[in-house]
Structures are given as C-alpha cells and as structure tokens.
Design brief:
six-stranded mixed β-sheet
C-alpha cells in the first residue's frame, strides 16, 4: 500500500468523445458488442446466462444479484430491479486503486460516483455475443490507465470475475490494488428472508478466511428459525482468488474509507455480524504498456468436503487458472450446443440480426426448455416420469418398459405405445417430453414470478430433465421449438389437450409432472382464481396448423380415438343467471374437491388430477370431443356483434386489462376463433370420416348451440338489435350453463352417441357466418377494428354494446384472423400507422392511446349540480357529516377520501341506513352511485393498463405485441404474394413489415433502444429505455418471423424454400466461415462465398446462394448428392430432415435474384 499525505489532480486536455456507440469488437479472441460511453445512458438491466444453473441479473452501472438454481441460493441479495441498480456502490464489484505516477499519488475508484469529476474518464460496456459474459471498462484518460472486469461463469467453479489493469502510458506506474466484491450473502438466506429481515440476517453472519489458501467462507452461525431446536448451518458460500501475489484479504467493507484516504489496512480473518465482502490487496508495478490480470471466483452451496478440496487445489495445483479458463470455455461451447439444437446459428451480412436471433432462441429455450438429446430418450427418466404420473400404470407396464434399451428413440416409444392396449400408458407415452433447461420467466423486474433452474439433483448431483411454465408461456415457446424438433409436435398437442378441462379452459401452470391451479390464499392480496380466456384457441391452433402441414391426415387419425382426457380443476363456473347478476364474481373454488384431487394425486401420481366418470373411471374423449369442448365454451359466451364474453375472472393476453373481466367482451378471441374454425372447415372438407362418438352430455350442448346459430342465421342480413342480441346470448349461455352443471353435479355418465361429421361441418360454417358478421360490425370509422367492447344488460331485457378506444391487440388479431382481403389488410395497416397507437420516437406501436390522467387535485370533484340534485348529499353537508361527502374551503365537493371504488361507497351508504338518513339513502342510493360513476368513469376502467406507466401501461410499448404484429403482417404479405396481388399492394404491405421489423430495434442506437439492441426486452415506457430483459413471449414471434423471412415452409409433408421476403442485402459481401454444431453435437464449419448466407433448420445447415436458376442440392451422410430442379424437397428427403437422424448433412439452395427484395 502506498502512503502519502496528499494527492494531485491530473487533467488530460484531450477532448473526450461522449457519443454513445454500439459496435462489434473482439477481445482475447472472443466476440462482444461494445457500448461506448455507456454511463451517458440511463442505467439498464441485463440478464447474463449460462449453460448450467447460474443466474445473474446486472445493471449497466454494476449493481447486481446472482446465484444458482433459484433465489434461495443467492450469492448477492435478490432484490427488485430498482434496488439492485441503486445498490451499485455497496453490492457487487468494487475496485479502488492508489496510484503513484511521476512521484505523485492519486486515488482512483472506477465506476464509482465518488471522485466522479476528478478525472477525465470513459466508461464502456461489453456483452458477449452468446449472452454469458459482460465486461465493465473504465478508461482513465488522465492517468492513462484502463481497468476492466468481466463477469462470466463456470459450471465447476461458479461465478468468475476477471480483472485487468492496463498501463496505456510510456512511463511505469506503481498501483496499490484493493479489489473485490461486496454484500456477499451466506448460504441459507432466501429472498423472502433477506427482503423482510436483512438486519436480522446480518446478526447471524460470520465470515472466515482460510489464510493458507485465501478462501473466504460466508456462513450463518445457525440456520435462522424461530423454533426452540438446534439448526446447524453446514453449508457456506465461498470466494477465492488467483493472480495477485503477496495479498492480504478483507472480509468486510469496513476499511474501504481508510484505504481511500491512504490509511493503513490490515487483514481480516474472522468477521461477525457484518455484511460479507471479499477484497484482495496487493501492490502492482506496471511497466510502460504492460497489464496485470487476476481473477476472483465465487460459488454457493458448498459443504466442508468441497471447501477442503477447493483450498487444497488452490495450494497445490499450479494449473488451476488454466482449468478455470478451460471450464469457462467449455460452458460457452455447451451453451452454443444447447442453442444450436434449436437452430440459433445463422451467418448473414448482418451480425446484429444474427446475434439477436441467437439471443431470441436462447431465451425461448430457457423458458420452454430444449430436448436433452434430440429424439433420444433415456430409460431412467422415462421410468421416473411414468412412476410420478401414474404409479399403477407404471407397475402394470413394467415389463414393457424394462425391455427398452437404456437409450431409445422417440419413434420406438411411439411404437411401444401403439402396441399397448392400456390407454393410459399410450397417453402418457404420447405426452412425454425429455426437456431440460426450462424455468419460469421470473427476474428482479418481475419478482412475483419465482423461477428455478433444475439441472442437477441437490442430493446426488444426477441430471434432471424438467420443465415448468405458465400455460401460455410454455406453449408459445414450444411453438418455436417445434420447428427444430417437429417429431415432438404430437407430444405437445397431447400435453395441451390433456391438460384442458371439460368446460373448455386450462389450469394455470404446466409442469413435467402434470399441471397446477391457483388457490385462494387469504393473506396474499395477489392470490386469485379464474381462467384466462384466450389461452385455449390461438396457442392450440398454431400446433394444429403445424401438424397438418408436417403430417397431413394425422389429425384425422385422432378423430375416433378415445386417447384424450380432461383436467380436473376444482373451479366451478356459476350458472348463467348468476353470471348475469354479477359477471365479476363467477367462479367458486371447490375446497372439498381440491382436497380430494390432491389426495388422489399424492396416492396415484399426477393422473390423480384427471376428471373421472360417475363410476370412478377416467373420462376419455376423442379429438373431436376435445376440440368441441373448447369451441363450445367460447361460442356459449358469444355476444353477436360484440365478441366473446369475458366472464371467468381473468383477462386475456394483456394481464393489465384485468378490469375488463365481467363487462368486457373480446373481439380479439373472436378473431382468433374465426381462424380456428376456418382451419377446421378446411380439415373437414378433406376428411373421410363419417361419424364420431362423443359424450351424450357434450352432444346435447353441441345441438343446443347449433340450433341457436341455425335459428339466428336470418338475422345476419342486418344489424342485430339489443333484444335479439340478448336472446341469442341467453340461449347460448343457458346451454353452456346446463352442460357445466350436469358435469359438476354428476360428472359424465360414460354414455356416448354418434355425431355425424356433416353435422360438425354445418355447425362450423354456421358459426363462421356469425363470427364474420361480427367482424364486419366491428370495423371502426377510422378503418381500425375494435379489440374489446363493453356489454350492459338493460332492465328491459336488452343487451347493449359500448366501445373502448382502439387497441393494438385488436389489429394484430384481426390481421391474423385470415378474414380480411389483402387490400383490407393494407387499409388496416395504413390506418394503424396514422393512429394514436404509433409512437414516433421508437417508430413502433403502443398498446392503447396515451391518456393524460387527471392530476391528484383534479380528481374527485363532484359537480355542484349533482349535489343540488341530491337531498341526501345536501343533508349530509348541512349536518357536517363527512362519511360520504365533504366540502373544501373553496366550495368544491369531494367524496370521502377513503373510498377506492363504488363498493366502498356502498358500504358507506349502508352504514347510514340505520340512521336519520335511512329514507334518503333508500331513495337515492342508485343516484349517488351514479354520481360516483360520473366522477370516476369506472365503467370504462380497463384495469392496471389505464393507471400505470410501465409494463403494459400507458404510453408503453409492449414488444411481444409488436412482434405478434410483425408475424401477422408477415402472414398478410405471404398471402398477398401467393394470391398474386398487385405490385402496389404487395410492395406497401412489405413496407409495413420492414418498418415494424426495424421498429423492434436491432439496428437502433443503444441510446434510443435503451440497452443492447441485440437483446430482447419486454417493454419500453415513455421516457425510458427497454425494460425487463430476456424471457418475453416476443422471442417466439421473432423466431417464427425470422424463418418466414428466410422462406422456410412446410406443406403436405414437404420442406420448401420460398424466400420472397428476404432482402438481398443480407447475403455476404465477402467470404466467411459458418460455424455450426451438427446433430451429433460435433463442431463443424462451412466456407461461404460472396453472395451466400447460411442458417440451420432441424440442425441441418442450409446455404442460400444467389444464382441464375432455382434448384436444391442435398448432401447426405454417405456422400451422395440429390438434386431438385425446384425449391421444394420431396417427402422422403423432408422426412429425413425432420427426423434429425443425421442422414442429411447439408442443403444448398440456389435462388434467382428476382425472388429477393
């Protein structure tokens, strides 16, 4: 350590370039994107990933949280994002340098707000192109020093902080280094405990140093419990270092100020009841242009044995640093392998777009999972899955399972299933998926979602294959995954359908071990129950469209097979008349049923949560019955010219529109339902099946709905009036109510009856006519389309509709519905661009028009006329009674400030009923409630969406919906091209597509985007940059759009290439090497030339080359080549690609220039 009584200030007169720039760079042969002058930007949040169970969420100012598996195994406190950003000075990396240069002494604290104006500095931020490393760099232009540190990870060793100090001057410099990490947690401190009682946690902390090796041990003196019993803390978190000789160690931050003031510091070996830290202090002499490197490594969940082994390795292994670096590199290789299996690798002229596709794919598999080894299945996991699902079925089929090899293929599993006469065994085989790497999309930006990365057993370290996700999240991620593993599409469909309920809805969460539902927890204000209304249609439809393209006729093979079941969720949707009375309170939680289901599940396995017949057998259904249950649930809530009634206590895609529940009617779901029924209309036209057998209960439901549609068909020639609208809803709603209640009360009888496919065809066409009539009725005068409407049941037995403002969600859905012509699609897109939904600064679209909400002092003012019209209000004011109303000194009137809504006002009025105001309350209650509504307009309240300014709130761009728009417009473009529309229509549609694509932002500046534009983010509020990194549903949409741009399609079982939306500028301008990973997980390369680009599909490399003639060359493993004089493969070759057997090794596609844009 340097000792000095003074410091000197150096100022370099060099004019610093403060411009924020993004550019690709290479450091130590690794590729990064660098944001120069990153501190000129508002701090933004990043997710740093790994191939294992590491998680790190870090702010661009250095504040962070990190750990392994989940937030219960944290290395740094797991706080919400804002607190992490604010804690950069006290949590995470901290470096302080005492510098002797030219006989002068200086103190330099990179990245700190301290001494901020003392030096002329530049801060740069680097993120690895694979997303698993981040570098913070500060250049001190006065001292001619650069310090950078990198966070990366090692599966074996944990989190690694690599530091490098560089002397950029031609003169030597002496530096006294104090470098480390702060606010390290001991083992055994979960997120809830840390957030609620961090001061109590501090009292239990003890940090010790193994002096011989420099290992810091961060432990609790005891596990924190409030029980009168011993609770030993036998695990610890650890930190150690390599690279600085003759170091002394600090285990707290208590001496930092002493060091800043050139005071003397001493080694710490045992620190109690203080926040943990780990600092190394050493003196470093740097010759001109020399640098010094050192590393610090931290890990969680270590026991005595592992710490002894680690300490010994530090003391005895001279090549430990090499082993560390090799393990870090291995982690990067494995991460690439994981992502390559989902076709993440592409090489075009646009490095930014290639990196964004890699990132999109990575976050998609992080949420949805990736298959462990393609179509290979390991018997140990299948046996465990089967035992957990249904131990009776597992035991009964033990012989068949034991006959399987230790590793076998998906096709073998299907063969075993098809040869069995045990329907439950067949079903469970067809649901099985060996996924790994999956986790729920929780992070400090959305801490209410709890994630867990289950890769290894905590008991024996064995591999875990697991997946878990909220319903729509995991199924939409699987939609993209299916393109890389198409043989698993059947399993995805079976998992989807077998987890849906008989009344047409789905539980909250899907796991490998079954499904879960929400329960009511009285102490948790966020707990609630209900069904999301949109989950059952569009997500399933995408799977069905996919399988029909890849395996024509496969769906029909399910028509008459009773291989599907129903989830038994303990929710009871109330009778139709009760839904009308209170549409916001529509579902009862059946506690007794919940207990029974859980007890049976505990005894039998996950199958204990399946619906049973009256005789106790599992209810079984064929594909047609399952689809009808879903469709009829929607159509029984059909409000003509309004939409689908949202009466199951949950909203749709947009959670923040939660207040639409009850009075809301969804045109969004109606648009998607139209596409759904149109798909089946086409399927039924080609079917050879004449009849199917369905449950008699469902058949009655079907007949009643069909009759209602047939009887109302004549009304479609005109606008439907409020009386007819109510009559139609009554008939549909009662049919649905009767069906539900018969099953709630008595379950299915087990009786089946025939249903003619011609009847289903007729029903489909009739339903389509009603839906399309409603679409026409919901076209707005500005050429946009309504998304959600409001319904009001009038006292005269009429049902009226009122309209909300335009919403992006409605435009996406109607464009996706397939109903509009290409010209109408263009008209809608032109209108969208001119609407209040377009946000000029980001050149993209918000969810709904920005509303300038009233300021606090403008709210809650009752008009004088309203008071004059109410004797009750006048009397209360005269009596000085402020229970309902009060008057301020300026003469304005206000409701009681304790009221949050009309419910509170009703309570207040009720409290007056046993007083002298009783008669007035009785006469005027409705009038006073209307005054309250006139003041606050709660009827138009859509929920959180209309009251907050982030997430899905006011002025905020929600990127998932923008990417859904992009995909919908891609479909519109392809439709216009395939229908040979005019060049003008096609050209303008393409303009919209490319504009939306650029608005998403991969080519935006970091300042405009607000982060690394090569990473996906959830939303961008007004005045801020991109928020919530990574695991957004956007990534799935962007993956699908990307393959659409590349022109990769499948129809009638054949893979073909039609890059009619691909831009010529994406082809390489010079020769490059495409690095990829084969299906056998081997690294390989292709030499690409100018005018080529490459990507993988089903992990087969595809090379596009601009040529004079369209043709395809397919290279096989046996070195043979098959040539096609078109852009389509035959069915056999396509199947070889889809089967991922490694038979096809390369596909070269020659494309004429006129195809390209």
């Amino acid at each position: 350590m340097l000792t000095s009584n003074y410091t000197s200030t150096l100022r370099n007169n060099t004019i610093k370039d403060n411009a924020v720039k993004l550019e690709p760079v290479t450091i130590d042969n690794k590729a990064y994107f660098r944001i120069s002058n990153s501190d000129e930007m508002r701090p933004f949040f990043m997710s740093i990933v790994s191939d294992s169970n590491h998680w790190m969420f870090i702010s661009s100012n250095g504040g962070l949280t990190a750990g392994r598996k989940n937030s219960e195994f944290s290395l740094f406190p797991y706080y919400s994002e804002d607190k992490i950003t604010e804690s950069s000075e006290i949590t995470g990396a901290k470096s302080i340098f005492q510098i002797k240069k030219n006989d002068e002494f200086h103190i330099w604290e990179p990245f700190s707000i301290r001494f901020g104006s003392k030096y002329n500095t530049r801060r740069n931020l680097y993120k690895g192109v694979y997303g698993n490393s981040v570098i913070f760099e500060e250049e001190n232009l006065d001292l001619k020093l650069t310090y950078r540190y990198e966070w990366c990870s090692s599966n074996r060793f944990g989190f690694v902080k690599k530091s490098k100090l560089i002397n950029n001057a031609g003169t030597p410099v002496n530096v006294s280094v104090l470098d480390g990490v702060q606010n390290i947690l001991p083992y055994g401190v979960g997120a809830d405990l840390q957030n609620a009682s961090s001061n109590l946690v501090d009292a239990y902390k003890r940090t010790e140093l193994i002096e011989e090796s420099g290992v810091g041990i961060f432990a609790l003196s005891a596990i924190i419990v409030d029980k009168a019993e011993p609770s030993e803390a036998l695990k610890a978190n650890v930190v150690w270092s390599l690279g600085l000789d003759n170091s002394i160690y600090l285990l707290s931050s208590l001496q930092l100020n002493t060091f800043r003031n050139f005071g003397s510091i001493h080694q710490e070996t045992d620190v109690k009841a203080e926040k943990g830290a780990y600092f190394i202090h050493a003196d470093v002499d740097l010759s001109p242009y020399e640098n010094k490197e050192w590393v610090m490594v931290a890990n969680v969940n270590q026991n005595h044995t592992s710490i002894v082994a680690l300490s010994n390795s530090i003391n005895t292994e001279d090549n430990l640093l090499d082993k560390l670096n090799a393990n870090i590199a291995l982690g990067t290789e494995k991460l690439i392998e994981l992502n390559a299996a989902s076709d993440a690798l592409q090489l075009t002229s646009d490095n930014y777009r290639d990196t964004r596709h890699f990132s999109n794919t990575l976050f998609n598999i992080m949420r949805g999972g990736i298959f462990d080894d393609g179509y290979t299945i390991e018997k140990w996991d299948f046996k465990k899955y089967l035992q957990d699902a249904n131990n009776e079925v597992s035991n009964r089929n033990a012989d068949a399972i034991n006959c399987l090899s230790e590793k076998f293929s998906l096709s073998e599993l299907k063969a075993v299933a098809n040869s069995s006469n045990n329907r439950d065994f067949v079903r469970l085989c067809l649901e099985y998926m060996p996924l790994k790497f999956s986790r729920r999309h929780g992070d400090p930006s959305r801490p209410w979602n709890k994630f867990s990365i289950n890769t290894r057993s905590e008991i024996d370290g064995s591999k875990i294959l697991d997946y878990e996700g909220n319903w729509r999240d995991i199924f939409q991620n699987w939609e993209a995954l299916a393109h890389s593993h198409p043989e698993f599409i059947e399993n995805m469909i079976h998992k989807f359908l077998n987890a849906t309920t008989f009344d047409g809805y789905n539980p909250y969460r899907v796991t490998k071990g079954g499904f879960d539902w929400e329960t009511i927890e009285p102490d948790d204000p966020w707990s609630y129950i209900g069904y999301w209304g949109d989950h059952q249609i569009i997500y399933l439809l995408k799977f069905l469209e996919f399988i029909e393209n890849h395996k024509p006729g496969k769906l029909e093979s399910f028509f008459n097979k009773d291989i599907f079941v129903y989830a038994n969720v303990p929710y009871r949707i109330k009778k139709y008349e009760n839904l009308l009375k209170n549409p916001k309170d529509t579902i009862d939680f059946a506690k007794e049923s919940d207990h029974k289901i859980r007890a049976k599940r505990e005894k039998l396995g996950a199958d204990g949560a399946l619906l049973q017949n009256a005789n106790g057998d599992v209810v079984r259904a064929n594909f047609i019955e399952k689809i009808l249950a879903t469709v009829l649930a929607k159509l029984s809530n059909f409000v003509p010219e309004g939409g689908i009634w949202m009466n199951t206590q949950r909203p749709e895609w947009n959670d923040a529109n939660n207040a639409l529940v009850g009075n809301g009617i969804s045109m969004v779901t109606l648009y998607y339902l139209r596409r759904f029924l149109k798909f089946f209309d086409d399927v039924f036209e080609n079917t050879t099946t004449d009849t199917v057998e369905v449950s008699v209960e469902l058949l009655q439901f079907f007949n009643e709905v069909k009759t209602t549609f047939d009887n109302s068909k004549a009304l479609l020639n005109r606008d439907i009036n409020d009386t007819d609208r109510k009559q139609i809803l009554d008939a549909l709603g009662k049919a649905g109510s009767d069906y539900r209640n018969s099953i709630y009360n008595s379950s299915f009888s087990g009786k089946k009856d025939e249903l003619g496919i011609n009847e289903v065809k007729s029903f489909t066409k009739s339903a389509l006519a009603h839906l399309e009539h409603s679409i026409e009725a919901n076209k707005r005068s500005d050429n946009l389309y309504h998304a959600y409407n409001l319904m009001t049941v009038e006292s005269n037995n009429n049902l009226s509709i009122s309209y909300l403002s335009e919403m992006l969600e409605g435009q996406v859905a109607v464009l996706s519905s397939g109903y509009l012509s290409s010209k109408e699609n263009l008209t809608a897109l032109d209108a969208l661009k001119q609407s209040k939904l377009f946000r000029e600064d980001q050149y993209s679209y918000i969810l709904y028009p920005f509303k300038d909400l009233k300021g606090f002092m403008e709210r809650n003012t009752i008009s004088a006329q309203a008071v004059t019209n109410s004797k009750l209000l006048q009397q209360l004011l005269e009596d000085g009674n402020t229970q309902i109303i009060e008057k301020d000194i300026t003469g304005k009137y206000h409701f009681n400030g304790n009221f949050k809504n009309a419910g509170d006002l009703k309570v207040g009025l009720k409290n007056l009923k046993n007083s002298t105001y009783q008669d007035l309350v009785h006469k005027e209650e409705k009038a006073v409630l209307q005054v309250f509504e006139d003041v606050f307009n709660h009827k138009a309240f859509t929920g959180r969406s209309g009251t907050f300014y982030g997430y899905e709130g006011l002025g905020s761009i929600y990127w998932h919906m923008v990417s859904k728009l992009q995909l919908a417009v891609l479909e519109c473009c392809l439709k216009a091209i395939n229908n040979k529309e005019s060049d003008a229509i096609v050209g303008r549609l393409l303009e919209h597509y490319y504009e939306i694509n650029e608005g998403i932002g991969v080519h935006k500046s970091p300042e405009l985007y607000g982060a690394f534009p090569t990473d996906p983010y959830s939303h961008t509020p007004t005045g801020k940059g991109a928020q919530q990194p990574g695991m957004t549903g956007q990534v799935k949409e962007d993956i699908l759009s990307r393959f659409g741009e590349l022109g990769v399609f499948v129809t009638k079982g054949k893979l073909y290439f039609y890059p009619c939306m691909l831009r010529k500028v994406e082809f390489l301008a010079e020769s490059k090497i495409f690095n990829y990973v084969t299906i056998e997980n081997e690294k390989s390369q292709l030499q690409l030339s100018e005018g080529e680009l490459s990507f993988t599909y089903c992990q087969v490399p595809v090379v596009y080359k601009i040529s004079q003639k369209n043709s395809i060359e397919v290279k096989f493993k046996d070195s043979t080549i098959k040539t096609f004089q078109s852009l389509s493969l035959d069915e056999a070759t396509s199947k070889s690609v889809f089967s991922r057997l490694g038979e096809v090794t390369e596909i070269r596609v020659n494309i004429t220039e006129d195809y390209l844009k």
